[in-house]
Amino acid sequence: DAGVIQSPRHEVTEMGQEVTLRCKPISGHNSLFWYRQTMMRGLELLIYFNNNVPIDDSGMPEDRFSAKMPNASFSTLKIQPSEPRDSAVYFCASSLVGGGTYEQYFGPGTRLTVT
Amino acid sequence: ILNVEQSPQSLHVQEGDSTNFTCSFPSSNFYALHWYRWETAKSPEALFVMTLNGDEKKKGRISATLNTKEGYSYLYIKGSQPEDSATYLCALRSGYALNFGKGTSLLVTP
């Protein structure tokens, strides 16, 4: 298995631009998680999906952030408009919940820089 | 949200030293405690999952224990090696999601 795949690995954009981060979870996993990592807050959970349905988006910072999971093999996290304080590493993770250990497998992350 | 505290924030040891660090939590109201290892420029990798008070897990030179009654888990590394340098994250699971601590950053120098 290729593991969790994220793209792009690096993104540099100007303030005000729309940014879309992509994630392909491990095949067979039924839950997907988006995290943001910053020096100040560590690893923060933004939103997670179970069977493609958003379960908890209370970690999404504000309305500029949105996430979708149109099918079991793809999810996007969109920031519109982007701001410099959104600069961080964004991780996607997937897991098989219900009957397993609930271990989460992380992708390589997308390093976002907003100038 | 379950509050997860990790200490120390960072640790610097010499190769061959054994070390340990702590994950503490105020409540035992969770399903499982997870330990992850996170190397610089890589993504977190799962080490252990523990669910019961008194659980002990071991993988090579790394082991972990869980004490839900007193609200802590220890991670031990025996005979630290430079390749053990990483951030070690503790997380509690109360539903589907994991709530992570900020980690202990370990540096092992030759």
Total DSSP E strands of chain A: 11
Q: How many strands in all of chain B?
A: 11
DSSP helix fraction of chain B: under 10%
The greatest interface here is: A-B, 22 and 19 residues
**Contiguous runs where pLDDT drops below 50 for at least 5 residues of chain A:** none
Calculate Rg of chain A over CA atoms: 13 Å
Mean pLDDT of chain B: 92
- SSE string of chain A, helices as H and strands as E: EEEEEEEEEEE
The fraction of residues assigned to DSSP E strands of chain B is over 45%
For the sheet with most strands of chain A, the description reads: 7 strands, mixed
| Category by helix and strand content of chain B | mainly beta
Quaternary structure state of the chains depicted: heterodimer
Helical proportion of chain A?
under 10%
Q: Which outline of chain A best applies?
A: globular
- Beta-strand content bin of chain A: over 45%
**N-to-C span of chain A:** 36 Å
Your description of this structure?
The complex is a heterodimer of chains A (115) and B (110). By secondary structure, chain A is mainly β. In chain A, 0% of the residues lie in helices and 54% in strands. Chain A has strands at 5-7, 10-13, 19-24, 31-38, 42-50, 53-56, 65-71, 74-79, 88-95, 105-106, 110-114. In chain A, the strands form 2 sheets. In chain A, strands 2, 4, 5, 6, 9, 10 and 11 form a 7-stranded mixed beta sheet that branches. In chain A, strand 5 (42-50) and strand 6 form a beta hairpin. The N and C termini of chain A lie far apart (36 Å). The model of chain A has no long low-confidence stretch (mean pLDDT 93). Chain B is mainly beta. Chain B is 0% helix and 55% strand. Chain B has strands spanning 5-7, 10-14, 19-24, 32-38, 45-50, 56-59, 62-67, 72-77, 86-93, 98-100, 104-109. In chain B, the strands form 2 sheets. In chain B, strands 2, 4, 5, 9, 10 and 11 form a 6-stranded mixed beta sheet that branches. A 5-stranded antiparallel beta sheet of chain B has the order 1-3-8-7-6, with no helix packed on it. The mean pLDDT of chain B is 92. The A-B interface holds A 4, 31, 33, 42-43, 45, 48, 50, 55-56, 91, 95, 97, 101-109 and B 31-32, 34, 42-46, 49, 89, 93, 96-103.
